[in-house]
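Case study 2.
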Amino acid sequence: YIAQCIDSLISQSYKNIEIILVIDGAIDKSDQICHQFAIVDKRIKVITKNNGGLVSARKAGLKHATGKYLGFVDGDDWVGPNFVSELYESIASTSADLVIAGHIREFYGKLEVIAPRNSKGFYNQKDVQEKLLPSAIYNGKFFQHGVSTYVWNKLFLRASLDSYINSVHDDIVMGEDAAITYPYLAFAKSVVILDSASY
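Prediction:
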């Protein structure tokens, strides 16, 4: 899936992005594919490291990032052409600390749109504390989060994200997204929730 993933990133309608590809000890042809894309698109940086898992790969990517905002895309996923522009315009126009969007799940050729469980709109710090946080981990329905754990349907402030990612131990292999998302959310001064689903 890596070629489809990268192709969806270089085809974004918003062009002013850096694309950091972390090769975390891959033993297939992912490394070659990433370097081929980097030759034709100068926005791509390829970081090669020994296998350390998802958390250490994200830390390595963050270390090389220079933009004001940071988002994640898993290597076996892809995004619609307006994914970055939708998130960027929302965070830049509101000066929010975090933007949360929906996503699409593809399973055996069927597409299911998963919208955020909270109403779309701008949430100030009081709203975050009173409306988002109390039901973030569990919203009262069986096996449902109020705020999705995933980091990949969100856009973060890079400078703020640094301490949250670096406090997560590299050995965590289950719940690693939640270990970043919920502490970040707890200290966010403002959040924007979108009803779009381009991931």
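The chain has a mean pLDDT of 96.
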